[in-house]
Request: fold
Amino acid sequence: MIGPVHLSWSSLFNADPQDMDWQIWINIRLPRILLAVIIGIALSVSGTVMQGLFRNPLADPGLLGISSGAGLAVAIALVIPLGLPAFLSLWVPVIAAFMGSFLVTFLIFQLSNLTKGNLSSLLLIGIAINALGGSAVGILSWISNDQQLRQLSLWGMGSLGQTQWSLIIITLCLIIPTVILIQCHAKQLNLLQLGEEDAHYLGINVHKTQKQLLILSAILVGTAVSVSGIIGFLGLVIPNAMRLIFGNNHKILLPSSALSGAILLLVADTLARTMVQPAEMPVGLLTSLLGGPWFFWLILKEQWKRRL
Amino acid sequence: MSNQLSYRLEGQNIYLIKNNHPILSDVSITLSQGQLVTLIGPNGAGKSSLFKVLTGYYAPTKGACYLKGKKIQDWHKKELAKERAVMKQQSHMPFSMSAIDIIKLGRSPWAEPMNKTMIDEVIDMTQCQGLVHKDYAFLSGGEQQRIQLARVLVQLWREKGPSGWLFLDEPTSALDLYHQQQMLRLLRELVQQFPLCVCMVLHDLNLASLWSDQVYLLNKGSIVAKGDVSEVITEQVLTTWYGADLKIMQHHEHQKPYVMLSP
Reply:
């Protein structure tokens, strides 16, 4: 398998604890592959749900401000000294990101009750939260010292370098059931495409379904951001590509997005690990670099099609 | 009495207040199966709001709607969806979807697997054969209305035909003359053959005159005239409530009033 250290498949299956290669397999390479797969699933599925929920192909997990809420919490945790014991300080960004994303989701939730669940005002709330979060992170990076600044910007670029097994197991336990629950909502998501009123007339409890899906995708985004920082564009590009290939039936769209999200992030992470070895490139930079132009092409193609 | 109730949807003394503005006041309306009922009225009279109350989308501030003797709000949402369907003026789809998939969404309240002959039958009667495999977003407004009609008919279909209450908000607004006639003839036929009630908002009073059994005229949130066509579509009623300068003629073949605006 590819990486700075060349490993053979046989060293994995020999399972010799004395073998250095086996140690790298078990403690570095395997957890990382697993993490790339699971985060890829989480980001692309949450993107699919957000697009369906907002009935907007440009809706993105970052749109509601959940990612920037998590980013702000991490920035606070990194810059403001908390005086925690060393073994905890490793987990601080993770816990902070998780708390931040849930706090923002809760806030959006309360505000959405005020606006009676109107999704377009929810979108505006997301924009406001993004602006606020962005400027607060800016202030924090301005007052931070050099080391903190570097940590902060690295986290913002996204990376899959967290490879403790305990962390991966927690991530799996959160993401897999959430993805399955979302799949159970595929039919409701299809009906919501007709609009809130028509979905209501077809027997859907619209606001309840919207709330459930909002919470489920917030769990995905919160978990993903807390483990891997902000990995951009996956949630935007994958669902749109799958819509072009398989159409817009969520029963097919959701699993195909999950699968291709997993593959794309695994490939991107492998590239990020190997292109500039022995150093590593943040995978979030790579996904944005690849996703941006591709998405641009997608929009142009749509425009051409409409003009014909 | 209880037997009769099961064929009726009734709004009783409905009041609706939104943002401190009275939208509907003391509206009572009965929609019986086997009838084609039309709501007419000037712009902003509250026709669409009344629709939303009768279909259970808005809860009335005062008064109540009863479907088969049971309050609309007390119905289980899925069961209600099998009894009444609604076609809005326009439905926009954010993502590309073929027309046939949209028609099939109408069947979602039903647990049973999709019956293909039924879908084909509805597509035939709404004359959507040539449209079903096209992308809904690229259809014209009138073609979209025909697809939406097929969707709501599929929603109410039981065994041989549609049954229940079908609400159509200006179903003919984007249709050409031929398709206006076809749609209204089809609705007329369905109402006569099946236990179905069609309730429409129409702006074209001549269409209302030719095809309605009952006409309700709404103005500023109240019903100001109701009855059969000859009672409501009269020169006196229309000039009073629309304020338009018009003449009523007699349709020479059908004894129906015919509205002509004065230039």
